[in-house]
Amino acid sequence: MKLGGYVLHRNNRDTLEPCLRGLLALCDDVVALDSGATDGSAALARSLGARSVPHAWRGYGAAREAAVNALAPCDYVFFLDSDELLGPEAVETLRAWKTSSPTEAVYRLPRRDWAELGTHRFRYRTQWRARLVRRDKAVWRAEQIVHEALPKMAGGRVHAFIEHRFATSVEYRAQKEDRYALLWALRAHAEQRGLKPVGVQRLASWTRDCLLKGALWRGGAEASRLAWAVAGYHAAKYAYLRELRQGRYPELVQLYAEGRYDALFARVRDGALS
Hints:
By secondary structure, the chain is an alpha/beta fold. It is built from 9 helices and 9 strands. The protein has helices at about 15-25, 40-50, 60-70, 90-100, 170-190, 200-210, 215-245, 250-255, 260-270; strands spanning about 5-10, 30-35, 50-55, 75-80, 85, 105-115, 120-135, 155, 160-165. Strands 1, 2, 3, 4, 5, 6, 7, 8 and 9 form a 9-stranded mixed sheet that branches. Helix 1 packs parallel to helix 2, helix 5 (about 170-190) packs parallel to helix 7 (about 215-245) and helix 6 runs antiparallel to helix 7 (about 215-245). It is globular, with a radius of gyration of 19 Å.
């Protein structure tokens, strides 16, 4: 069984090496898709044994599509984000999975999101994510500019933990969530999705992460602040969607409709909204 692996990166030299070492220990072919790194990340990937493939950034869906297309023929695709890694035990578990003649369309792995806020490090939450996908089902589209989830598919689970450096600053995380919310809303607007109450979404998200998933018990007040920032995404995406329905951000709407995702990301990243 052939397993292809990939990671998307830009300037991620501080986390890229452990990420790639896990992929290289497991996969038969590894692609590091470089979206314009200037910090030596591409050279680092090559030095470790991965294939560095340049790719102009047009969003997550287009990048994942390009990474899969760049992989050698394989039966399954496995991917990590550039701030994720596999520990030795997870690698061994996945090697065992690889020799077990898997057949499911998708396999989900538990991802532990870690917060590193000052001197305080704690597990924020654990979520199951689809990361092992049969090659014929590993299909992404360019219009999936953010939260590029695969279609829901029945599958199996592999108990190999992915360790994720989720947050090092509450403020930076809040800014990132707000950008993601606007990008989500642009796609939702084009697809004519329905609106939901803004306040309810934020409170529900905070309750889920802090209380149901236990972040509050592990991280205290810092976990509560982080959860409120993360929950801002769920409120902001519907607030933005309502504004789009009212005619706001016409230039961004046009860029999305024309498929000019590179320009769209540049506008959102730079805060040049209209």
